[in-house]
Structure formats: structure tokens, C-alpha cells
Q: What sequence folds into this?
């Protein structure tokens, strides 16, 4: 503000000063030229010639002032009545005040004149009235100061208003920050929709807060899950070890107890690993590998891997793949998701008589869709959303081994790559569809739930 | 077999050393990266077991430094980080195998025995033979007592891997990794079913079983019946 003010004042002052200098120089040059002309007339035609010309010029109204005197200072001709002795005695340019008659009596006016000594003791004084210019200068100068004062006032006032608004908005951000630090993650920075820098900052801060809240909710869920579903097997493990210790059995029973303990521990480790994998997928820190995946080959791999297992349960496992279905992504991750789906179909998708499992891969144009369909009991409509959540096991499956994390991992893989999992009715049976974009953008950050 | 354990947790190291001794191996121990590097450089070992996070110098850096110095002793990396990305990083640094904590000792033993075998100068072997079972890697022909056995391509690779490590224990995850090239835990015992099919083909008609199940660990192909 001060900087702008001084720059403006400087510029105006400079222009004012330059104009003044220019005007003064012009005036001086005019006076100089006229004096020279008149002196020329004197040299050519003597005092009478000069007197005649000066008398003529004195009659024309205007700002021009003339005076011709003899060597005693007596006036011969001219529109100036008298001049002071000092002026009369000086040589060259001189500023002086003279009296000019007006409606309100004689008034003092400023003039600039040149005093020229002619041969023979005569003096020639040629001048211009510069009172008007002085008045003009005074007007400009006062306008300048008034203007400057006004500008300073408006500038300071405006600046204060603007900064008060800005600071209020920054205070709002600070307040939100404080709310969040106090543990309320729902606080958001107000957005006024103006789209200016602060608004954009607020929008980004809010997006960041959304993401943090989401992650915190995920963490909360994981710790809840750990409390519920890991404590139970841990407790079982502990009880078994304790019981074995109190039993006083033989070497074989100890051995059996130890083996069961290790089995239980292995189960726990598996669950733990699965949980960690899901957490990493949800945090977007895993699955960064980008392999070119041939969906057909991938499906063949898993059908071949699980086929004997399916056959043991009297189920058929077949693959059906459209030609040339390709996508980019982490082969291990997508493979594991597919394995989990097939595994589930084998575990829960059969009936006493057996069943049919069909694995397909197709290209819908935007996405690659893997599906695993079985002819088993299916999942009731009300539970379809729920089964994708961590540790959710439907009543019918509770008695069988499993952690309840298989489908959560499939869902996490889909979310990581910006795809989706659909739980559908195969009429009869269950149809699970994993839909992934061709180029699985690793979008751990921008995804929304 | 001389095994160098580079592990900072003294209890884990002591447990590993004791278990390795019981399995008939000679363990050495270093408690940090620098000491491990010095020991691996100054003495000859058959296998290194390297913890990934070590004081003074991390495990991956120890291995890559060794490789830079021309020491090719096979190394098994132990890590709490189990993701594929980390695994790839470990193998790229010059590690030969990767095991995620927590692991079972039998899995670790099976893997280091397989690693030590890998360096033996028999890469050019084209035929494996266990008792009267023969496998030709070039013609893909498998015979037992001179009788040809027809195998599916995957069954062939399964048998090939088992016979390459004849006499050693091979775990289910090792099989999934090397025969199928997938690095995750299958939820069910898919591998077992493949093994039982293979067993039906190579053992069923014969008096002496060669493909043995090692309870709680994995499988082993060997001539002695035990």
C-alpha cells in the first residue's frame, strides 16, 4: 500500500515538475526571442522605431508586458507603468510583482521579464504575466496532495477490509483444524464457491480430510475386527495349551496338543496376513506391479489348479473365455482374487449331488469382467452387500473352516483398481462378478467409497 | 551344511541355531548387518539366512554388497513385509528366496535345503532318477521300472520339481511358487489334491511308495521308505 502510494506520488510529482520546467523554458524562450527582435528594431531604426513598435504591441491585450526607459529610468513607452530600481538595475531574467488594474482596484500579479540594456542608456524590459500560471500551479499542487491523501485513505481502508475478510477465512481454516485435532474428524473447512485461491485450498483440504476420515474409519474397523475375530482363536489356542499342561497325559497326547496348537497358530497367521493384505490394498500401498495379463491364461491357470479339488467334491469346474481378453495389473493380486472366488464356489457352491462351476472372462468394452458362477444355494438378496465386508460369514458357513476375509480381499482388489464386485443370482446359484478396468489405474488416492 | 544366520533378535537366532543343529547343520550367527557381511565374506557357508531389518546395515544391502564382491552364497531373506512388491525388491537385491514372518521352521528348513541344492553343479542334468522312477527333462518321458507313465504337463512339472529336490522336503507354498508361479496362500489344500493325483500315477501300481507326505510340512520324494 505504502509502496503503491509513494510510486503514484512519485509519478505524479515527476510529471508536474517536468511540465513546469517545460512551460518555464518555453516562456523564457519566447521572451528571449521578442527581446532580441526589439533590440534589432532599435539597432535598425533607433529609439523612435522601438518606441513605435512597443507602443503598438502594448495596446494588444494579453499577458505581454513591455517597458522602455531612458537612462534615468523614466518611462518612455510600454504597458508597465513603473518598475522598481532593483529590477531596473538587474540584467537578464527577473521575476517580479507588478500592479495591474482590475475591477476591484489594482492587484498584485507575478511576472517574468528580461531586462535588456540598449546602447545609449535605454532599457528595454520585455515580460509576461505569469500570475495565471502560478495559480494553476497552486491548483495542481493542492489537487496532488488532496488526491494523495484520498488515495492513502481509500487504500488503507480497502486493505483493512480485504485483509479482515481474508483473515476471517483463514481463521475458519484454523478453527476446523482445531476441531479435528480435538478428535472430531467430521469438521470441514467452509467453501464459499467463489473458486478463488482460498476456496480451492479449502476444497483440497476437505478432500484430504475425507480421505483421512475414510482411512481412520478403516483402521477403526480393523481394530474392531481384530478384537472380535482374532481374540477368539487366540483364546482357544491358549486354553488348549493350558489344558494340555494340566492333563498330565503321555507323550503322545502332549504331541497332539502341540500339533493342534501349531495348526491354530497357522490359522491365526493366515487370518492376520489376509487382514494385512486387505489393509495395504485399502491404503493403496500394495499392488503397484503392472503386468500385462492374459485373462484367458489366468483363468486356465486357476481352473487347472482347482479342478482336482472340485472333482473331489463331485463338482465340475470349467473355463469359458472370449478371445483376446487382456488387462494390465498385478497378476498375483488379481490371481488371488480369482482364486478366492473359485475357492468360495467350491466350498459353498455345491449341493450333495455336486454342482457346476463356470469361470468366465469377457471384455465389456470399458472393463474386463471375470465371473465365477455356481449352482449352489446362492446368497439371499439381503446378505449380498454384507458378504463383502471383513469377517462376515453367513450362518450356513460358520461351521466350515475359513476366515471370512476371502471376499473382502476380492472387494479390496476391485476398489484398488477402480473396479467393482457384484453379487448376483445365477438362478439357481451364485454368480460373483469381478469387474476391472482395462488399465487398472492404481488409484489408491482418488477413489471414493 | 554350514548356515550363517544374520538376525538381530537373539531369541530367534538361538532358536534357529538350535533347530538347525538338530537337523544336522552347522550354524553361525551374526547379530547385525556389518558383522554378518564380514562373516559371510571371511568364511565359506552353504546358505545365508538374512533378516531384512538389521541394525547397522539392512539385510538387502548386505546381500547386494556380497553379490557385488562376487560372493554367490545363496541367501534366504526373512521379512515381516510379505507383499509381492517387497518380495520382488528382495530378489532383485540378490536374494534367492524370500520367507515372510511368522514362518514355520520346517518351511524355512525345506527352503534353505532347496537353496543349497541349487548351487550344486548339476544344472545341466537332463535326467532325474529316484529308485526305479526316472524322469527325462528333454523328452518329457517318465518311467517307473521301465514302464512309461503318462502325465499331464502340470503333473510333469510337479514331479520334476519334487525329483530335483529328491530326499528333501518341499512345502506346499514352494510348490505353488515354483510349479504354478503364484505367491499366495491358497485357502484350501489345492496342492494336496494335485499330489494325490500324481501319487496315484507313480506309486499306486507299485509296491514301494516314493512320494511321501511329511506331516505338517509338505512332501518329499525319496527311495527309502521311512
A:
Amino acid at each position: 500500500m505504502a509502496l503503491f502510494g509513494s510510486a503514484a506520488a512519485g509519478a505524479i510529482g515527476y510529471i508536474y515538475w517536468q511540465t513546469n520546467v517545460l512551460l518555464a523554458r518555453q516562456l523564457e524562450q519566447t521572451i528571449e526571442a521578442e527581446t532580441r527582435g526589439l533590440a534589432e528594431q532599435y539597432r535598425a531604426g533607433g529609439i523612435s522605431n522601438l518606441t513605435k513598435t512597443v507602443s503598438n504591441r502594448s495596446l494588444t491585450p494579453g499577458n505581454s508586458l513591455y517597458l522602455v526607459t531612458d537612462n534615468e529610468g523614466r518611462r518612455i513607452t510600454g504597458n508597465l507603468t513603473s518598475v522598481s530600481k532593483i529590477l531596473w538595475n538587474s540584467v537578464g531574467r527577473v521575476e517580479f510583482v507588478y500592479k495591474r488594474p482590475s475591477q476591484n482596484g489594482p492587484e498584485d500579479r507575478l511576472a517574468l521579464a528580461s531586462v535588456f540594456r540598449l546602447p545609449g542608456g535605454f532599457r528595454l524590459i520585455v515580460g509576461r504575466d505569469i500570475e495565471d500560471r502560478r495559480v494553476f500551479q497552486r491548483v495542481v499542487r493542492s489537487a496532488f496532495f488532496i488526491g494523495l491523501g484520498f488515495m492513502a485513505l481509500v487504500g488503507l481502508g480497502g486493505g483493512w477490509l480485504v485483509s479482515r475478510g481474508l483473515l476471517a477465512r483463514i481463521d475458519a481454516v484454523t478453527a476446523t483444524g482445531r476441531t479435528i485435532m480435538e478428535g472430531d474428524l467430521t469438521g470441514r473447512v467452509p467453501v464459499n464457491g467463489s473458486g478463488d485461491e482460498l476456496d480451492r485450498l479449502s476444497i483440497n483440504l476437505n478432500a484430504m480430510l475425507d480421505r483421512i476420515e475414510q482411512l481412520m474409519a478403516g483402521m477403526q474397523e480393523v481394530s474392531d475386527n481384530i478384537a472380535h475375530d482374532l481374540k477368539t482363536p487366540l483364546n482357544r489356542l491358549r486354553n488348549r495349551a493350558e489344558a494340555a499342561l494340566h492333563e498330565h497325559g503321555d507323550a503322545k497326547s502332549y504331541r497332539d496338543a502341540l500339533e493342534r496348537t501349531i495348526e491354530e497358530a497357522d490359522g491365526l497367521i493366515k487370518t492376520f496376513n489376509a487382514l494385512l493384505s486387505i489393509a495395504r490394498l485399502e491404503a493403496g500401498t500394495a499392488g503397484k506391479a503392472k503386468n500385462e495379463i492374459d485373462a484367458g491364461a489366468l483363468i486356465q491357470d486357476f481352473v487347472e489348479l482347482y479342478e482336482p479339488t472340485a472333482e473331489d467334491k463331485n463338482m465340475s469346474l470349467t473355463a469359458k473365455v472370449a478371445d483376446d481378453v487382456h488387462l494390465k495389473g498385478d497378476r498375483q493380486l488379481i490371481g488371488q482374487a480369482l482364486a478366492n472366488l473359485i475357492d468360495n464356489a467350491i466350498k459353498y457352491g455345491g449341493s450333495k449331488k455336486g454342482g457346476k462351476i463356470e469361470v468366465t472372462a469377457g471384455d465389456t468394452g470399458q472393463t474386463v469382467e471375470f465371473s465365477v458362477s455356481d449352482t449352489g444355494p446362492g446368497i439371499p438378496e439381503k446378505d449380498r452387500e454384507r458378504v463383502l465386508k471383513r469377517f462376515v460369514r453367513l450362518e450356513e458357513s460358520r461351521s466350515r473352516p475359513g476366515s471370512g476375509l476371502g471376499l473382502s480381499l476380492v472387494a479390496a482388489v476391485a476398489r484398488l483398481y477402480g473396479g467393482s464386485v457384484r453379487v448376483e443370482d445365477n438362478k439357481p446359484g451364485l454368480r460373483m462378478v469381478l469387474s476391472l478396468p482395462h488399465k487398472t489405474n492404481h488409484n489408491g488416492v482418488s477413489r471414493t467409497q | 551344511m554350514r548356515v550363517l544366520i544374520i538376525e538381530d533378535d537373539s531369541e530367534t537366532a538361538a532358536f534357529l541355531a538350535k533347530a538347525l543343529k538338530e537337523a544336522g547343520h552347522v550354524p553361525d550367527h551374526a547379530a547385525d548387518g556389518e558383522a554378518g557381511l564380514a562373516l559371510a565374506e571371511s568364511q565359506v557357508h552353504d546358505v545365508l539366512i538374512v533378516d531384512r531389518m538389521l541394525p547397522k546395515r539392512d539385510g538387502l544391502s548386505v546381500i547386494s554388497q556380497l553379490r557385488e564382491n562376487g560372493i554367490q552364497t545363496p541367501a534366504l531373506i526373512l521379512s515381516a513385509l510379505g507383499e509381492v512388491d517387497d518380495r520382488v525388491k528382495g530378489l532383485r537385491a540378490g536374494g534367492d528366496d524370500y520367507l515372510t514372518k511368522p514362518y514355520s521352521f520346517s518351511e524355512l528348513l525345506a527352503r534353505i535345503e532347496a537353496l543349497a541344492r541349487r548351487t550344486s553343479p548339476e544344472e545341466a542334468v537332463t535326467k532325474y532318477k529316484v529308485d526305479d522312477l526316472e524322469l527325462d527333462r528333454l523328452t518329457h518321458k517318465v518311467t517307473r521300472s521301465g514302464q512309461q507313465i503318462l502325465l499331464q504337463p502340470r503333473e510333469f512339472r510337479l514331479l520334476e520339481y519334487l525329483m530335483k529336490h529328491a530326499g528333501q522336503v518341499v512345502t506346499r507354498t514352494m510348490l505353488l511358487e515354483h510349479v504354478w508361479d503364484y505367491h499366495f496362500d491358497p485357502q484350501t489344500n489345492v496342492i494336496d489334491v494335485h499330489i494325490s493325483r500324481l501319487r496315484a500315477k507313480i506309486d499306486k501300481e507299485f509296491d514301494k511308495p516314493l512320494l511321501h507326505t511329511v506331516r505338517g510340512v509338505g512332501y518329499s520324494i525319496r527311495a527309502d521308505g521311512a
About this structure: The interface with chain A takes residues 82-85, 88, 100, 102, 104, 154, 180, 182-190, 193-194, 196-197, 216 of chain B (CB under 8 Å). The first helix of chain B runs from residue 10 to 22. Chain B is about 40% helix and 20% strand.
